[in-house]
Amino acid sequence: MNFDPENFRAEKYEETELYFDKSCAFHSHFGHKQKTKAFRYYRNIIGFLRANVGVKIYFTLNDAVASFIREGDCLIVNMKAYQNFCSTIGVKTGGRFRAFIGQNLSLRDVSVSDTEKSAYIRNNASEDDLIEVIKNLPADAQARMYETFQTLANKPTSSTSAVFETDPDKLISALAKFLKSEKLQNAFYAQLPSIQIGILESHIRFLESNLDKNEKFIQNWLDEENGRYRKQRCLIFGLEYVDPIREGQIASKRFDVLAEQDFEHHVIFELKSPKDEVFKVEQHATSAGGISTEYHLSAALSRAIPEVLGYRKMYKEAHSEELEKMGIKVRKPVSKCVIVIGTSKNDLVWRENFERVRNSLNGIELLTYNHLIDRLRNTVQNLVLNTISQEASELQKQPDGVQPLANAG
Predict the structure, then answer these.
(1) What are phi and psi of 90, to 5 degrees?
(2) Hey, where are the domains in the chain?
(3) Mean per-residue pLDDT for 115-139?
(4) DSSP single-letter state for residue 65
(5) For 298-311, what is each residue's pLDDT tens digit?
(6) Distance between CA 196 and CA 202 in Å, rounded?
(7) Element containing residue 257 per DSSP (H, E)
(8) Long-range contacts made by residues 107-116, C-beta under 8 angstroms, separation at least 24?
């Protein structure tokens, strides 16, 4: 959809305006029998706009916009998608629009405008704080920043030449102030629930669409672009696992993922293919003319169990030098090992056998990729409910809280 603000008409809602696609029959969609501007869940949007001054919301019924798209400070929202989302949540609070937007937010969306950045830098270019920040960065990051500043110093653009001609460190100190801005940090933390919702929703979609792939495909996804998204993508295992290490080597053996849990323990993950079977199911004819069905561990799961137990033993016995090479400064107890393999079957006998195996594996948690998806869905639901609950709480604190329109006509 090509966005043109001229194709939208403005309608006044209390102290703000909403914009509606002129080519869409909103009157019919809303089922209005008389002239009115009110529609389901519009009050949530008023609260959102109060908290996000400068943002404009444009509504359409065009299916080319699946949920919403962002054009600078403009949000083009599919009205049907928004109302369906609110109806699904079914909670009467003022934060549903934020939760709706949060479905598809990514880390790239957590930013301020270039104008705000420039103004902040101009007003705070007096200290060399960033030098201390750079000292604590990894060596490769330091090198890249140094090369960037050298390039700017040697071939300054019109916007940076004045800074470098007087004092190159001024740009560095200005950036430091920007990075340490409490205002920006607070804004970022306020967005975290929505960011997590968007990230986890994308992980659900990825897993659901790749249950026919092999384990190498999943591992390559975790490692894409030299591990740039690894921490984010390892959230598929749970928000409680942090600082994931991929394919750490101990005694020439490589485990798939090692992560911290609750900052007190380590957990070892062994990833098998989503298309692997958990069981090898055999059927035999009985002497009575019937059929008996036997469940045996599949070859893939039979290999995974001793492998992950072997990794745990090697981790406990590893020399400190080996752990330091992986970036582990303190050896922590392994609370459990986790094997992720295959998909769940919608079959009562299969599930009973799965639970029986699961309960018999001491120190090993057995999961299928469906379990990961279900856990992610529960986490997203909790984040959504927490987000809209917090939003409602904030709106209630406002002295000029959202007031209903008796008849917006």
Answers:
(1) 65, 30
(2) 1-111+193-208+373-409, 114-185, 212-342
(3) 45
(4) S
(5) 999 999 999 999 88
(6) 10
(7) strand 257-261
(8) 107/195, 107/199, 107/232, 109/70, 109/191, 109/195, 109/198, 110/187, 110/188, 110/191, 110/195, 112/184, 112/187, 113/73
Question: Is the Cβ–Cβ distance between 194 and 387 less than 8 Å?
Answer: yes
Q: Give the closest residue to 393 by CA, choosing from 81, 47, 133.
A: 47
Query: pLDDT by residue (tens digit) across 57-80?
Result: 999 999 888 778 878 778 899 999
Cβ-Cβ contacts under 8 Å for 359 (sequence gap 6 or more): none
Say how far apart CA 358 and CA 351 lie, in whole Å. 10
DSSP class per residue in 169-190: HHHHHHHHHHHT-HHHHHHHHH
- Write the CB contacts of 289 (distance below 8 Å, at least 6 apart in sequence): none
Terminal alpha carbon distance of the chain: 30
Q: For residue 146, what pLDDT is reported?
A: 62
Among 1-5, 110-114, 382-386, which range has the highest average pLDDT?
A: 1-5
Name the residue among 397, 391, 399, 328 with its Cα closest to residue 43: 391
DSSP state string for 268-317:
EEEE--TTS-SEEEEEEE-TTS-EEEEEEE-HHHHHHHHHHHHHHHHHHH
Kindly state the percentage of the chain with pLDDT values over 70: 66
For CA atoms 218, 221, 227, 228, give the dihedral sign: negative
Nearest in space to 234 (alpha carbons), one of 265, 200, 274, 275: 200
Amino acid identity for residue 287 in this structure: S
Say yes or no to pLDDT of 371 above 90.
yes
Query: C-alpha distances in angstroms, 90 versus 43, 95, 384?
Result: 15, 12, 12
Q: Evaluate whether 374 touches 367 at the Cβ level (below 8 Å).
A: no
Would you say residue 136 has pLDDT above 60?
A: no
pTM higher than 0.90, yes or no?
no
Q: Compute the distance between CA of residue 217 and CA of residue 172 in angstroms, rounded to an integer.
A: 41
